[in-house]
């Protein structure tokens, strides 16, 4: 029996087909079909072990679910982006109070000023990776409340605490404040890991474009943070007022994401893709379904390892350079607002995030086919050439290496290339990688890829510290 011999009447709610017939004709091809399968009790009282119903997915009304996952993508990375974008705020908080020249000097930073960005990168990403691994193992045992709602609530509480400290004078206990921020960053990393794994797992159950919009949302979080930073500088806001804008914005977005996710729980489209028994319907019986769904991490990793490794290499390079190393760049000339206080916000943060967003958009619209997955892996490995290129730019303070690429054009070009390649490769790896496996294991594949993404973040953060010592 062939697929073409089955007639689907989309004018009715469902069409009957025997389980044995479906089991003999469906396989991985069902992934690309325009309909979904769910198992329901027969209205005529027939045995549901021998008959199932096939019907199309409900519509995503007003694209509410689509927009919510874009917002959740923003929420997963906005806290981190505002932490690193509030660079002037941290420079003020950790200035040498006995030497005021360290506040705004590019070449004469205090030890805490020079090291803070790299330290928070390590403090965030190491626990982030560890808990992503834990979530990879136990993700399906956790309720959707614990995976999404609880982390959003925790992030809101943490950022409310960070916001409160903006107006508190910490000059007399800088090391204590430094330690407190590191602890908060660690907890943020743990919470973000649970949220990232939860969002990636659930969105993997939806059509591919929902994963794409989530990936775009993560990049848009960086753009939002960069725009907020640039506007505050153009408005001559001091570092304290700017930080208040950053952290209040983060609080608002987290609350909005929490509200939106609560609303879509009632969406028929969301319920259909996350709660239906369509996975069981494409198998011969419920016993086989349990065996197929409860596959090991090792089995799934064998199927998606090129994408997993590509994501790790991609973010290893990106986090090794941005932001820890990239924020140490100084302009070739001085005396103008564009090569003064707006230099880093525009050439480092905004340019990278905009390029990253564009790369992710192209990656979703023009993806690299599954047959080219090894090419993707090789291109991600080539990105390691970005390390010496950036390190030879006008980076300060430096201790050993000379400046060979002093022109601002070199730095701007390299940051643009870093963002474009990062965005394109991660979009391809996440969208194509997840949809390259059968529907029954896509959720687990999404969580595994998120764990390898976190591994790249951790390796990049550690590499950033080493690179700063080398230059």
From TrEMBL:
This is Equilibrative nucleoside transporter 3. Belongs to the SLC29A/ENT transporter (TC 2.A.57) family. Keywords: Membrane, Transmembrane, Transmembrane helix, Transport. It is a multi-pass membrane protein. It comes from Oedothorax gibbosus. It holds the Pfam family Nucleoside_tran. GO terms for cellular component: plasma membrane. The keyword Transport applies. InterPro entries: Eqnu_transpt, MFS_trans_sf. SUPFAM superfamilies: MFS general substrate transporter (SSF103473). It is found in: Membrane. It comes from the Eukaryota. GO terms for molecular function: nucleoside transmembrane transporter activity. The chain crosses the membrane at residues 64-84, 116-138, 145-166, 178-206, 213-231, 243-264, 304-330, 342-362, 374-397, 409-434, 446-466.
């Amino acid at each position: 029996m062939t697929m073409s011999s089955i007639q689907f009447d989309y004018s009715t709610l469902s069409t009957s087909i025997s389980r044995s017939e479906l089991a003999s004709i469906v396989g991985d091809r069902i992934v690309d079909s325009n309909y979904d399968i769910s198992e329901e009790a027969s209205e005529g009282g027939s045995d549901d072990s021998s008959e199932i119903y096939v019907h199309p997915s409900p519509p995503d009304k007003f694209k509410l679910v689509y927009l919510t996952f874009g917002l959740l993508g923003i929420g997963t990375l906005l806290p981190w982006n505002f932490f690193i974008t509030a660079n002037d705020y941290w420079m003020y908080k950790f200035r040498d109070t006995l030497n005021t020249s360290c506040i705004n000097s590019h070449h004469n930073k205090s030890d805490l000023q020079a090291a803070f960005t790299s330290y928070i990168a390590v403090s965030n990403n190491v626990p982030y990776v560890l808990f992503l691994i834990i979530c990879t193992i136990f993700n399906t045992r956790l309720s959707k409340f614990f995976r999404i709602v609880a982390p959003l609530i925790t992030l809101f509480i943490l950022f409310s605490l960070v916001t409160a400290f903006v107006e508190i004078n910490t000059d007399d206990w800088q090391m204590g404040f430094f330690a407190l921020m590191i602890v908060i960053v660690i907890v943020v990393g743990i919470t973000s890991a649970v949220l990232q794994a939860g969002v990636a797992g659930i969105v993997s159950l939806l059509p591919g474009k929902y994963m794409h919009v989530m990936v775009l949302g993560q990049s848009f979080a960086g753009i939002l943070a960069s725009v907020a930073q640039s506007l505050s500088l153009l408005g001559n806001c001091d570092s304290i007022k700017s930080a208040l804008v950053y952290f209040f914005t983060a609080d608002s977005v987290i609350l909005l994401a929490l509200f939106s996710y609560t609303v879509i729980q009632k969406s028929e489209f969301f319920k259909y893709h996350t709660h239906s028994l369509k996975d069981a319907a494409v198998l011969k019986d419920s016993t086989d379904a349990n065996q197929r769904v409860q596959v090991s991490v090792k089995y799934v990793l064998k199927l998606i390892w090129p994408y997993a490794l590509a994501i790790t290499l991609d973010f290893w390079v990106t986090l090794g350079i941005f932001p820890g190393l990239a924020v140490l760049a100084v302009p070739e000339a001085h005396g103008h607002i564009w090569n003064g206080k707006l230099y880093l916000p525009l050439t480092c943060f905004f340019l990278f995030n905009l390029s990253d967003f564009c790369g992710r958009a192209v990656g979703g619209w023009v993806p690299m086919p599954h047959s080219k997955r090894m090419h993707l892996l090789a291109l991600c490995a080539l990105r390691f050439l970005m390390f010496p290129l950036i390190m030879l730019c006008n980076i300060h303070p430096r201790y050993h290496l000379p400046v060979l690429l002093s022109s601002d054009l070199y730095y701007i070009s390299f940051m643009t290339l870093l963002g474009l390649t990062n965005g394109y490769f991660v979009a391809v790896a996440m969208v194509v990688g997840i949809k390259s496996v059968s529907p029954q294991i896509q959720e687990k594949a999404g969580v595994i890829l998120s764990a390898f993404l976190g591994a790249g973040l951790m390796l990049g953060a550690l590499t950033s510290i080493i690179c700063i010592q080398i230059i």
